[in-house]
Amino acid sequence: MSLLVMKFGGTSVANVDRIKRAAKRVALEVAHGKNVIVIVSAMSGKTNELVDWVNDTSQFYDAREYDAVVSSGENVTAGLMALTLQEMDIPARSWQGWQVPVQTTSAHSSARIESISPQIINEKFAQGMKVAVVAGFQGISNEDRITTLGRGGSDTTAVAFAAAFEAERCDIYTDVDGVYTTDPRVCGKAIKLDKISYEEMLELASLGAKVLQTRSVEMAMRFKVKLRVLSSFEEPSNKAGTLVCDEEEIMESNVVSGIAYSRDEAKMTLVSVADRPGIAAAIFGPLSDAGINVDMIIQNIAEAGRTDMTFSCPIDQVSRAEMALNTAKESELINFQDLLADTNVSKISAVGIGMRSQSGVAAKMFQTLSDEGINIKVIATSEIKISVLVDRKYLELAVQSLHDAFELHEVSS
Ligand code: ADP
Ligand code: ASP
Ligand code: MG
After folding, report:
1. Which residue, 75, 107, 316, 364, is the most exposed by fewest CB within 10 angstroms?
2. What is the pLDDT of residues 206-241, one digit of tens each?
3. What residues contact 391, with CB distance under 8 A and at least 6 apart?
4. How far, in Å, from the CA of 39 to the mean position of ligand 2?
5. Which residue range forms the structural domain that includes residue 341?
6. Do 281 and 147 share a structural domain?
């Protein structure tokens, strides 16, 4: 019996009517003789509300209780989806993460899936159940506590189930009809890609394109899961959506395939630190211990044995980073004159595997931003991406002008 994983994001299960609509999609697959594992997100806005409630209750909250609260949104939609399918005479049952179980690490609020036991669900399929509905985003740790997988984590639940059950494909239903050359909400000229390589999708996701959680792409790449992104609001069709696949399946790679952005970044500068061997380790060690996701780093030229060190990190990690650096200063691990945080910056990135063999992409990117009068604050590059930090007020303009400059409205996919 062939098995399909179908994941419905928050907007696709935003209310009882939308759940009915999603259930009809599932019914179509069942009518085609498939067993289906449905992974559901919480209703849109629900997880944000739950996170706010935790923050309103406790400033330095216990992460185990955070997970107990924020995982609950998915429990509601899983039960409602199973009930909706039953109303349609489709044998369905819901599971929460711990019931499967989805075993994870104990890193609360950003746990990683270690294993999924297919046994119980497979037994139910063998007994005639057609659809297993599983609450996304959650699992259970070795200490038997509920964990969550980080924001957007239902995508990762879906891919992990597709890998564990060797599903024929993992379909991610969302509120856009595929992966675009950039966020269609920011650039009206963005176009949908029919195919995108795992590597490019991985870069786009990790640089801010939230259409797929980064770890879900990593996992799909590792386990060779066929991954499709499509809209739950459009009529079903075999050609719908975007297929995330191996590079070899794409005839011609574009120099730049997409522009990603991360709106809420911060730029932090340690003013006047001693320029001595080991200083970078002394700064970034404590930051890493504090769980700060440091991204771009610049060390300025030293003058009289002292230098400035600048790095970027997500805006919501600024106070934790400040605490870690001030503690390191107090214990005389490092010494700096001042610690500055610029919280008005965004990161814009151009991504494309064609960059490996084509030069001039960085120059074009810098020229385009300069023509728009946008100042670049920090630059970082890798084999297939170039990222810059700019003032947040220029985010839309930067994305749109780069989309034009790289002629992404004409890309082939
Ligand atoms: P869901 O709730 O279904 O998981 P998300 O909000 O997490 O949906 O992801 C879908 C959103 O991702 C879209 O509404 C879109 O604004 C945003 N997005 C960002 N970059 C891209 C891109 N390159 N292609 C498509 N969507 C993108
Ligand atoms: N509900 C969770 C979130 O909003 C997980 C998800 O939707 O993927 O982050
Ligand atoms: Mg999402």
Report:
1. 316
2. 999 999 999 999 999 999 999 999 999 888 776 789
3. 344, 345, 346, 374, 375, 377
4. 11
5. 259-410
6. no
